[in-house]
Structures are given as C-alpha cells and as structure tokens.
Specification:
The complex is a heterodimer.
Chain A (H helix, E strand, L loop, with lengths): L1 E2 L4 E3 L4 E2 L37 H7 L5 H8 L9 H9 L5 E9 L6 E13 L2 E10 L5 E3 L3 E3 H8 L4 E6 L4 E3 L9 H24 L5 H27 L8 H17 L6 H15 L2
Antiparallel strand pairs in A: 1-2, 2-3, 4-5, 4-9, 5-6, 6-7, 6-8, 9-10
Chain B lengths: L1 H27 L6 H25 L4 H27 L12
Helix pairs in contact in B: 1-2, 1-3, 2-3
Classes of the chains: A alpha+beta, B mainly alpha.
Chain lengths: 288, 102
C-alpha cells in the first residue's frame, strides 16, 4: 500500500483504494470516477502532489499537531475565524488557481468595494505560497501582478472588508468564516426575507385551522407575498451584479415560481400550499 | 447591515400588515368594483416593497437613479399583485357572495 498524499494506492490491485477527495472539473465525466488517476491518461498526464496533506499544512504553520493548526483559526490566532481558508488549503494542490475576494460597503457613499487577488498555489521549503497573477478591481478592471505571496498574507486580503470569500477555480467557493450563514448583503437580506415569508405562511396556515381564523390568515398571507416579491427582486439584483457569484438565473426563476405559487394559491388547501412554497424557497436559499 | 435588515423587515411587516388589513376589508365588503378601492389596493401593495427595496439599496450604497428605478418597478409589480391577484387569492378565504334579489 502506498500513500500518495490525497489517497492510498494498492500495487497488488493496481489501483487507488481510497477515492480522490474532490471532483476537479464538474463538467468532465471522468472526474466523477474518483478512483481513477489523471482521467486514465497516465502516459501524457501526471498528478505528482495530490491535495496538500495535513502534514504539509502543519509544516506551513510550523506546527507539530493538527490542534496547533486549528489554534491559528481560533480566537486570538493569526487567521482567527477564517475557517473557509483552512478548507481551501485542505482541498488545494500545486497549480490550483485561487482567489481571495474582499467585499466592503462604504456607508454613506455611492459605491462599494469588491476586489480580488488571483494566483496559483505552490508548496516549497515547507511553506504554502501563492504565485500572484491578477488583481481585479471593483469596476472589474484587471491588472497583472508578479511575485510570490505567503498564503497567510494572501488569505488576509479577503479579511480587510466587511465580508470575504475564497475560491479555487472550478470548485467550491468558501466564505472566509465557514460558520457564517451568509456573506453578502444580498444573501443575508434574501435569507432574512425567506425566514419572514416562511413564518408568515406558517401563521396563515395555523390561523386558517384555528378559531383566530380568516382575518389573521388574510393579513399574514399578504405579508408573505410582499416579502416574496422583495426577496425575488434582491435575488435578481444579485444575479445582475457581476462581481457577486451568490445568485444565478435559476435562483431568480425558483424565487419567481415560489412567490407566484405562494401569492396566488397560498390560502388554498388551508394554507399548506403557501407554507410549502415558502419553505422550499427558504431551503433553496440556504443552499446558495 | 443588521440595522438595514431590521428596518427592511419592519417596513415589510408593518406596511404589508396594513395592506393585508385593506385586503381583509375589501373581502368583507364583497370585493366591490370601485376605482377608489382599486387604487387603495394598488398603493397598499406598492408601499411595502418599494420602501423595503429603497432601504436595502440605500445601505448597498447604490446610485440614486438605480435605487429609484428598481424600487418603483418592483413596487408597481407588487401593486399589480395586490390589485389583481390578491383579491382572487382571498376568495379561498372569503368566497364572493352572490346576492339574489327576489
């Protein structure tokens, strides 16, 4: 049995016996076979590193134990709260394109700052670094960068704003704090409105089935309708803002359908229709 | 941001609650075909969404033109829902009475 950083290989069986820890390209069917190596093209492709191992991450932080690494992300650590960055390091390998995005609101002024550093990972001399490639400004203008930055400093860039997002190209995007429920104003607003809408629909359903009755259900279902329309509009705005990647056309479509179904047929079936559509919308936005 | 979310939710609940009360009165009056009622329903639906979105976009530091345009357009959509679709929806709760004069 041989250990190749991200997984184990059994030379008697002639194949990996543990699955790869990620699907590098979701559009490539071969990548869904996670026991395969370099998509079966072993003569002209190679994967010398695999993901960064916990040992390499411990070396990078100068630690002897994993709890020491975690202490860097706990309160008082150099990257306190940036659990999303630890997830990135565990799924990254040499050559991966990585982004560190800072989202900042400028209160009282027209405009906000959305800036990204883009680079590629490199592990050498027991340190994980990032070869800088591009700086993307708030107006989506780009300028080329040169040089190498320690990955800790690269991660700190996203922490300068009100929110921060890390991403590995072609894979998952992480908030700088993986424990937060939302990372952008639009995302937080839609999730809050979803909660109000679901609560209103629940009140309407309970009222229809109780002595409080019709007047209460009428008012509650109307509040649910307005929260649905406001949430749909904010989701649409988020989709149209190119710097944010937290809403898609599918999200807008789902929001329109759930608002219409809840708004028109809400009280039908003793409120169950409205409650079900609001609950589905809430669940959908939680998964963004 | 927390302040914005609190104001946004309060606006939608208070103005939306008032719009719901108007819908209730309209249903209890057996859905009269009156332009005064139609305008009241439209405006009561316009205000909660337009005010909520204006608050959100103000805190988003959006340009004034975009703030006005988006708020008004979404408010109009909401007003049309309140004028046409909500009275239809309310008939699940308060069925329209047909008075038969003998």
């Amino acid at each position: 049995m041989h250990y190749y950083r991200a997984r184990y290989y059994d030379d008697h069986l002639g194949q990996f016996v543990s699955p790869d820890t990620l699907v590098p390209d979701a559009t490539n069917v071969f990548d869904y076979n996670r026991f395969m190596c370099v998509r079966g093209r072993v003569l002209n492709m190679n994967d010398p590193t695999g993901n960064y191992s916990n040992d390499e991450i411990m070396q990078h932080f100068g630690c002897d134990s994993w709890s020491c690494v975690e202490s860097q992300f706990n309160e008082g650590g150099s990257l306190a709260g940036a659990w999303g960055w630890l997830n990135v390091l565990q799924e990254a390998e040499d050559g991966d394109i990585v982004t560190s995005t800072m989202l900042a609101q400028i209160k009282g002024q027209a405009g906000s700052v959305h800036s990204s550093l883009v680079g590629s990972f490199l592990f050498s001399n027991k340190r994980i670094s990032v070869n800088l490639q591009t700086f993307v400004g708030s107006d989506v203008s780009q300028s080329a960068l040169e040089g190498t930055l320690d990955s800790n400093a690269f991660a700190q860039f996203a922490r300068n704003g009100d929110y921060g997002i890390y991403g590995i190209k072609g894979r998952t995007t992480y908030g700088r704090d993986a424990k937060a429920a939302c990372y952008t104003v639009g995302q937080c607003a839609t999730q809050t409105l979803d909660a109000v809408s679901t609560g209103s629909a629940a009140v309407a359903a309970v009222c229809l089935g109780s002595v409080v009755g019709a007047p209460c259900a009428t008012v509650a279902s109307q509040v649910g309708l307005y929260t649905g329309i406001a949430g749909t509009t904010i989701t649409s705005l988020s989709m149209m803002d190119g710097m944010r990647e937290d809403a898609s056309a599918l999200d807008v479509g789902v929001s329109i359908v759930t608002t219409t179904v809840g708004g028109v047929f809400g009280p039908a079936g003793k409120g169950a229709t409205g409650f079900a559509s609001s609950l589905f919308q809430w669940w959908w936005d939680q998964g963004e | 941001m927390d302040t914005m979310l609190i104001i946004l939710v309060l606006e939608v609940i208070i103005f939306g609650g008032f719009a719901g009360y108007l819908q209730l009165r309209y249903a209890q009056a057996n859905y009269p075909a009156s332009s005064r009622w139609y305008w009241a329903l439209f405006i009561s639906g316009f205000i909660p969404v337009a005010a909520g979105l204006a608050t959100f976009l103000y805190y988003e530091a959006t340009s004034f033109g975009k703030l006005i345009l988006v708020s008004i357009l979404a408010g109009i959509v909401s007003g049309l829902f309140s004028r046409f679709l909500s009275p239809y929806q309310k008939q699940y709760i308060y069925p329209k009475r047909t008075d038969r004069a003998e």
